[in-house]
Amino acid sequence: MSHEIDFAVQPRQTPPRGESVLSVRGLRTGFAAGRTTLTAVAGIDFTLHAGETFALLGESGCGKSVAALSLMRLLPPAGRILGGEVRFAGRDLLRLSEAEMRAVRGRGVSMIFQEPATSLNPVLRVGEQIIEALPGGMGRADARERALALLAAAGIADPARRIDAYPFQMSGGMKQRVMIAEALAGEPQVLIADEPTTALDVTIQAQILDLLARLQAERGMGILLITHDLGVVARAAQRVGVMYAGEIVEEAPRAMFFAAPRHPYTRKLFAALPDGVGRGHRLETIPGQVPPLSAMPAGCRFAPRCAHAETRCTLAAPAWREVAPGHRVRCHRVDEVALAASAVSAPLAAEMAASGTAQAAHVGSAASSQEFRIQEFTAQEAAVQVSAVQVSSIVPEGTEVGSALTAPSPLLEVRDLAVHFPIRQGWLRRAVGAVRAVDGVSLALERGRTLALVGESGCGKTSVGKAVLQLIASTAGEVKLDGRILTGLSRSALRPLRRRMQMVFQDPFASLNPRLSVGEIIAEGMQALGLGRAEASPAAAVAALLAQVGLDPAAAGRYPHEFSGGQRQRIAIARALAVQPELIVCDEPTSALDVSVQAQILNLLGSLQADLGLAYLLITHNFAVVEHLAHEVAVMYLGRIVERGTVGEVLHSPRHPYTQALLAAVPRIGSADEAPPPALSGEMPSPANPPAGCHFHPRCPRAGAECRTAYPAPVAVSATHTVYCVLNAR
Amino acid sequence: MNVLPVILWSDALVWLMALAALVLGLLSRRQPPLAAAWRRVGRSRPGMAAATVVAVFVVVGLLDSLHYRPALDTPAAGASAAPAYAIETLSVLDALAVPLRLRGEKTYSAPLATHAFAKETQEIRAADGSVQQVRDFPRLRFGGAHLLREEAPAEATDGDTANANAGVSRRTADPSATTDASPVSSAMAPSALPATSAMSEKAAALAAARQYDISRRVGVAVLSALIVWAGVVVWVVQLLARRESLAFAEVGRRLWRGETVFAWRAVLLTLAAIALVVAPMLALAGDYHVFGTDKVGQDVFYQVLKSVRTALVIGLVTTLTTLPLAIFFGLAAGYFRGWIDDLIQYLYTTLNSIPGVLLIAAAVLMMQVLIDTHPQWFATAAERADLRLLALCFILGLTSWTGLARLLRGEAMKLRELEFVQAAQSFGVSDLRIIARHILPNVMHIVVIALVMDFSSLVLAEAVLSYVGIGVDPTMISFGTMINNARLELAREPAVWWSLAAAFTFMVALVLAANLLADAVRDAFDARLVGSS
Ligand SMILES: Nc1ncnc2c1ncn2[C@@H]1O[C@H](COP(=O)(O)OP(=O)(O)OP(=O)(O)O)[C@@H](O)[C@H]1O
Ligand code: SF4
Ligand code: SF4
Ligand SMILES: [Mg+2]
User: What is the CATH number of the domain that holds B416?
Assistant: First the structure.
């Protein structure tokens, strides 16, 4: 009990740096499902040292969150801890009584969650929530004092005013800061952060990661960082553990991890990143899916998807092998894999693409029968399937971008588009103002090309996409598709044009009606637009579309919930393709997907563009995806475009301070050893009352007096590169 | 038998609902998410136990919803002459319950009594030929009349000790009668008749005979119930064994341990419990009044059975009225927003701000005036009562759609922002089609939940409204009218408790079972997204 008193009253004695604060041995956790228990975490070991960040990296469903919740003993009702040991401050947390455990939570180990919006109580002022988390025995005034100090420590500007705010009055980044302040209230020795930045923008993500690093340096906490993002690992972690299907398969110090990953799964993850691979190249993918909990393979759990698997892999689970000091791997064939990779890593990609179908078939037979195999159709195959029905011009790769922008009739032309949402108030619900979501945006997009629209969340990207498709009414400006003005057309006049443009949404779980079969979903557009395809029957058309996006045609009879996220996104793409559009608006098509699945979808989008000459309006915040897929980029801030140009121009020589800050905030894996550049301060103001002058000036590190008075005029840096910033005029 | 089938409006609606439920059930088998939800209901043990109880009530209600008018025995029934039919409309349940329906007593009698509840003055000729006036409890005309029958007509002076287990009611009921509450033997003593001892002997014999008869019947009934139940169990196990091609013993073992996917054990155990309760009641109902009789001597058991249909009609037909309104207004408001939403919101806010009972009372009174001034509309009294019942359902439905509509509006507002709706919009799919295809199926779980949750509250609402006097037609038997009548009976001294007790017990059984089923349905349907993501 003396520990509790220690935590509660005295300032905690920081354990010396490097000493182990939390050590996990053989932790096993499962879920009761009917009469059986499904093991979600299958015996993981790791040690967390004081002052160190240990990242637990893994794709969705691999058991990261369950592992973290097991450490806190906060599992959902069906969860069961099946065994193992969690040593903290000389005690095994799994053996403590619930009352003792309560004293450890918050005081010894505390946790922050992925979704700042739901982890704070919406009806309590943030100050009260922090005070609640403070150790007891503090006077009212003292507690408030302490809460103010914590908010300040968490980087909240003007804490004296913010302490009495409600969570809904704060932005996502601020809520996450409050959550961190709350987690720090008990002076914990260990902080568990479960995807703390996944719901945030890159700029805010950089701020939060910097904040965590600073707090850690001050307090010497150990941080267990749970993430699926290699970039976050590169920026924030000192050591990394890679989880796959409930097990840790590789553990290494960061530098070694990025320089020489050894486990086949880790290597595949790296290969699947779109980073660096140029446009038009196919990304490497990992065939198959993470096995379901109910059908875990015996032996190595990665064996059904592993290109190096041999018989012993399916028979016995590999043991830990120390390949370098601090670098451990669980693979039977570590040495061969390293050799093979250094020799054939380049041909491997080509071979993958060519023999994709055969390999997928092999995986399909090994995987559980309920899962559909993902067939990696090669470009030729897909082309044969559709060439009969789809006739579109393909812009040759060599076309100069400059001519594309000034070409006589681009496929899509947007001029001065504005979308204002009225703010209604009072009894008569009169409009008292407007949220200027889009405030004068002009774009042009050629056939067969991709224009990426990037920017922080809330800058109006999605509104542009929906206004282009006429899904929301525009306030001003015009949208022209192939020379015909869409804005202001009646529903019936618009209907024949709807066929030519479609949308792929961000969340593949919300974009498919769970009550309709896949076949019905795909056929809906054809029916609504009265399209008969060249095929004999709608069923044949659906089958051809499914094949085109790499799914088994038998999928038509299944329902969306039977598919994984990546497969659902393929279905959504097939639905859009069904009406043979020329333009597809892709709204964050991969941001809800894991890296390996993202690679599959990016490959698919790329090959569809090459074969069908589709034009994409790609809405995203992921610069790696932009680099991989787009030809041109437009950067949006607060409803307006601040910089526009080709991918090379904008990503490699950005001229606008905002673009520069955005790019700097992106965690780069290559730069793992350099100190990350300072994060952009502040947050995007509300689009209801944008700042006067240059919208960016409150956050701009280079703002001058003239920036506050007038919105900067466009400056043409080159024929294709335009910037809205006074700096470039000089 | 020559009968004229009569289809009352409520019959048509009840059978339509039954048919619709069947069709919906078949349709939801083709909808995997819905089918999965129903399978989850099937797995829930309390849910299936409750469903079994509800099913028994529904069977009674359906039997009571097949109406006909029997032919009258006209003396000159020529082939050409149109047969004449009785003015009275009967149901199949009435036909099955003939002994209950026709064997009315004069007035109150306690459950399983052989004697009336009140003393009457009777004239008996004593052995010496003199006529004596005796105030005593007369034997019932039917209740337990088969016991020691031969003496009954002459020996009407049996002591009421016969009423062995109706001890509470043994005190004299007639205020004008001697108010002695002492045991009969002492009460009889002052009259000092020579027959006293003989009479008390007969009374004792009757009591013994009754006791013996009752226990024999209960015993036989329990035994045969168990045998029939065992037969059902064997049949179910055989069916399962055939369907899953497993050994009989294996299926039996699984069933016994509750390891079947469908909660068969709960269903069978509930059936056993129902059989054990119902079989003795049926066995006794032939010659006794299991729940006694009411003021006009009608069997309370019969009334309870008849009330079931009224409750079901109120519960089901009202939801039938509520559903289209709630779905239409709720989804339209949530999907279209704008002025349509404003209009619908004003409508239901206004409706909600008038106290419900007042609104219902006003509507019911208006309807009553209408019915009373147009007697020519109705061929039989049953038709009139039926129409009034339906009108009550519609009035209840018109005033109670707002809650569900509000829920559906919120859900539709959420769904219309979902991306699959926008995908449909981007195909130019018409709004009505989007509502029908994309919104409605995704709120069906709320509709199902609201439906089963509302049922029991409507049954209770009927009871309350009838109690206040604005419910069903006073001639229509319902839980509400039974309870309303019991109000007066309870005020008697000694109280007539059985009418209220029976109505209350059955209503609670129905409502409780419906609520448990509603809980199971809600859990299963709310969890639908958990299972699908
Ligand atoms: N409440 C639950 N009941 C049953 N199974 C669960 C439950 N919660 C999680 N699981 C299962 O446990 C496994 C691990 O889930 P977990 O949430 O830890 O994954 P994750 O790596 O955090 O994924 P994500 O990145 O999507 O959050 C998954 O297979 C999941 O289906
Ligand atoms: S043990 Fe075998 S299957 Fe598993 S990762 Fe290593 S090589 Fe692949
Ligand atoms: S105009 Fe001024 S404030 Fe705006 S981006 Fe350029 S330098 Fe910064
Ligand atoms: Mg998670």
Answer: 1.10.3720.10
pLDDT digits (tens, 9 = 90+) for B90-130: 888 888 877 777 777 777 777 777 777 777 777 766 667 77
Q: Which domain holds residue B267?
A: 106-298
Q: Check if A528 contacts B (Cβ < 8 Å).
A: yes
Specify the length of chain B in residues: 533
* Cα separation, A280 vs A610, whole angstroms: 9
Instruction: Compute the distance from residue A55 Cα to the ligand 4 centre, in Å.
Output: 13
With an 8 Å Cβ cutoff, are B419 and A511 in contact?
yes
Q: Give Cα separations from A310 to A303, A333, B405 (angstroms).
A: 8, 9, 61
Identify the domain boundary among A167, A193, A228.
Answer: A228
Q: What phi, psi does B512 have (nearest 5°)?
A: -65, -45
- Contact B30/A at CB under 8 A: no
Whether residue B353 sits in one domain with residue B479 = yes
Chosen for mutation from B414, B426, B440, B443 (greatest number of chain A CBs closer than 10 Å) is B426
A490 → chain B, closest CA residue: B428
Q: How far apart are the C-alpha atoms of B478 and B474, rounded to whole Å?
A: 9
Take residue A711 and report the two structure tokens written for it. 């919105």
Q: Are residues A123 and A54 in the same domain?
A: yes
Q: How confident is the model at residue A673 (pLDDT cuts 50, 70, 90)?
A: low
Q: With an 8 Å Cβ cutoff, is A153 touching chain B?
A: no
Residues 6+ apart with CB under 8 A from A662: A202, A203, A454, A455, A456, A623, A635, A680
| Alpha-carbon distance B433 to nearest alpha carbon in chain A (angstroms) | 10
Residue A351 pLDDT exceeds 60: no
Rounded Cα–Cα distance for residues B442 and B51 (Å): 25
Could you report the per-residue pLDDT of A365-420, keeping only the tens digit for each? 333 333 333 333 333 344 334 333 333 333 344 344 444 444 457 899 999 999 99
Q: What is the pLDDT of residues A512-555, one digit of tens each?
A: 988 888 999 999 888 887 765 555 578 888 998 998 888 888 88
Report the C-alpha dihedral over residues B323, B324, B327, B332, rounded to 10 degrees.
-160
Q: What is the DSSP letter of B169?
A: G
Cross-strand bridge partners of residue B85: B71
Domain end (from B298, B318, B338): B298
- ipTM associated with this complex: 0.70
Q: In what order do the strands lie in the sheet with A20-33?
A: A36-49, A20-33, A79-88, A91-92
User: Which one, of A633, A288, A267, A199, lies nearest residue A455 by Cα?
Assistant: A633
What's the pTM? 0.73
For chain B, the domain total comes to: 2
Q: A578 and A544 in contact (C-beta within 8 Å)?
A: no
Separation between Cα atoms, residue A111 and residue B286, nearest integer Å:
71
Does residue A453 sit within a domain?
yes
Euclidean distance between CA atoms A252 and A260, whole angstroms? 10
- Which atom of ligand 3 approaches the CA of A726 most closely? 1
Do A127 and A275 lie in one domain? The reply is: no
Cβ of A503 within 8 Å of Cβ of B426? The answer is yes
The single residue listed with the structure tokens 């044949």 is A540
Bridge partners (DSSP) listed for residue A681: none
| Token duo for residue A253 | 């110090």
At A225, is the secondary structure helix, strand, or coil? Answer: strand
Looking at the complex, does the CB of residue A507 fall below 8 Å from at least one CB of chain B?
yes
Strands (E), A34-171: 36-49, 53-57, 79-88, 91-92, 109-112
Which numbered ligand comes closest to the C-alpha of A700?
3
Contact criterion met (CB below 8 Å) for B322 and B400: yes
Alpha carbon dihedral B491, B496, B502, B505, in 10-degree steps, equals 50
Burial label for B416, CB within 10 Å (0-12, 13-18, 19+), is buried
Do B198 and B322 reside in the same domain of the chain?
A: no
